[in-house]
Design goal:
Blueprint (H helix, E strand, L loop, with lengths): L4 E6 L5 E2 L15 E6 L5 H6 L27 H7 L8 E6 L5 H12 L5 E5 L4 H11 L7 E5 L3 H9 L5 E5 L16 H18 L2 E6 L12 H5 L2 E7 L6 E8 L7 E7 L2 E4 L3 H5 L9 E8 L2 E13 L7 E4 L3 H14 L7 E7 L10 H14 L7 E3 L2 E2 L5 E2 L4 H10 L4 E5 L9 E3 L2 H8 L2
Parallel strand pairs: 4-8, 4-9, 5-6, 5-7, 7-8, 13-17, 15-16, 17-20, 20-21
Antiparallel strand pairs: 1-2, 1-3, 9-10, 10-11, 11-12, 13-14, 14-16, 18-19
Length: 449
């Protein structure tokens, strides 16, 4: 009998090695190589050379039109918009987020609503039936007769259950706990995740049942497992936010059935997750107009949002000044500080600078540049902006203020909340901006009082 061969696969990136090494040369991670058995015998290429049948293609125009499938209503209007109108039957979605962010909570809320009219199955590979029941009682989901539960980690059994056509929606928590009996590796490995996902995907497409997979994330925030998992599914949802408080944001990183520019903003309490109807007003409710405080008009997907930017500037006690940012990219902050020093008369080389985005939001909008600059200048000069002022605009390395997308929607949101002075790029003066600025120096001199 031929000796069994083994290989070592990286659980982080999927790279394969003939022997174990402490570090993966492909992704640079340590201690991520797992041993797997390699099947012996004739190669797959040799087998495929003598097998297979000739396919009969057809033209695109000759494909028969199918009746438009009715989407499943999640019971949360903003989630329906993120998904492109609701959950599509036969679609496979992947929901990922940090531990404790509320993935299981929001899925159980959706399952309870769908179960009012359709049979729903909740599969848990991490929690027992008693644990899930406690959460269901807290959310009021335990009264739905069409909401069923099963605890299993077998991908074979779950796929067979999906193919039985007994459920319209199946929620699997989580894909990293599943395993196939034919694959000789531990649950959570690259081969187990890839093969289990393929089996469940085929079952969902064959039966027409919608499937939602819960995914773990790594310490860097990316979805754990091979990248092929994100390519296999139809929709990839990211649940972001601070697990200890603040708003939670659900957005689609990939969506074959709709847009990826929508976002749903949640707030969590003891009864579950709730949509924030007016997040701008909630974020600004406790604001005090002091030096270092600036209101930014940003965008979360297609939704305009007003958020407070706070800056604190102190003399440094050491030779190297400290820069700290919460909710904003630190590298971008260093660029903005360099532009401030070069294009204005501010001297920040001996100052510690702290930036905070109120509400636990994380900004990646280029329009936040001008608000960050004015907040730093306001704190350094101990001057504050006029009341009812909103700021947005991208700052170039030459100190120029560049245009940003959706300027009209930002201005409309600011006016709706009672802000009368809107400072923005000169190139967007026709988009409802009351005060247009062309350079960073002009903005600081004219509007810091």
């Amino acid at each position: 009998m031929a000796k069994a061969k083994h290989k070592f696969v990286c659980n982080n990136c999927g790279a394969q090695y003939p022997k174990w090494t402490g570090k993966c040369d492909n992704c640079g991670e340590w201690n991520t190589l797992a041993e797997e058995l390699v099947e012996t015998g004739a190669s797959a290429v040799a087998k495929s050379h003598s097998s297979g049948t000739v396919l009969r293609p057809q033209t695109i125009g000759s494909i028969a039109d199918e009746q438009r499938l009715a989407r499943l209503d999640t019971g949360i209007a903003d989630v329906n918009e993120v998904l492109g109108g609701g959950i599509l039957p036969g679609g496979v979605m992947l929901l990922a987020g940090q531990p404790g962010i509320g993935k299981s909570t929001v899925l159980l809320q959706i399952a309870a609503y769908v179960a009012r009219s359709k049979p729903v199955l909740y599969v848990s590979g991490e929690e027992s039936a008693h644990q899930v029941k406690l959460r269901a009682q807290r959310l009021g989901a335990h009264t739905q007769d069409q909401l069923s539960f099963v605890a299993s980690t077998s991908a074979d059994d779950i796929a067979a259950t999906i193919r039985s056509d007994a459920h319209s929606l199946v929620i699997i928590d989580s894909i990293q706990t599943l395993s196939l009996a034919e694959v000789a590796s531990a649950p959570g490995s690259v081969s187990q995740i890839t093969n289990s996902s393929n089996v469940i995907l085929r079952a969902a497409k064959a039966s027409g049942a919608a499937v939602v997979l819960v995914g773990h994330v790594t310490k860097e925030g990316s979805i754990a497992g091979p990248k092929v998992l994100e390519h296999l599914v139809d929709v990839v949802l990211q649940f972001e936010g601070d697990r200890y408080g603040g708003f939670k944001i659900l957005r689609a990183a990939k969506n074959r059935f709709g847009s990826t520019s929508e976002a749903a903003i949640f707030d969590m309490d003891e009864t579950g997750l709730h949509i924030v109807e007016n997040p701008s007003a909630a974020l600004l409710a406790e604001r005090q107009n002091s030096d270092g405080s600036v209101v930014l008009a940003t965008m979360e997907g297609n939704r305009p949002l007003l958020v407070e930017i706070q800056a604190l500037v102190n003399p440094t006690n050491f030779g190297y000044p400290k820069r700290t940012a919460s909710g904003f990219d630190l590298n971008r902050l260093n660029v903005i500080i360099a532009v401030l020093e070069r294009r204005t008369k501010l001297n920040l080389s001996d100052k510690d600078i702290y930036i905070n985005v109120v509400g636990g939001l994380k900004l990646s909008d280029p329009a936040a540049d001008l608000a960050i600059c004015m907040a730093i200048a306001s704190a350094a000069a101990q001057r504050k902006l006029e009341e009812h002022t909103v700021v947005f605009g991208e700052v170039g390395l030459g100190g120029e203020i560049r245009s940003v997308m959706s300027a009209a929607r930002r201005s409309a949101e600011a006016k709706k909340l009672g802000f009368t002075n809107i400072i923005g790029p000169k190139s967007s003066a026709k988009a409802g901006i009351t005060t247009s600025v062309a350079t960073l120096r002009q903005a600081l001199i004219d509007y810091l009082k």
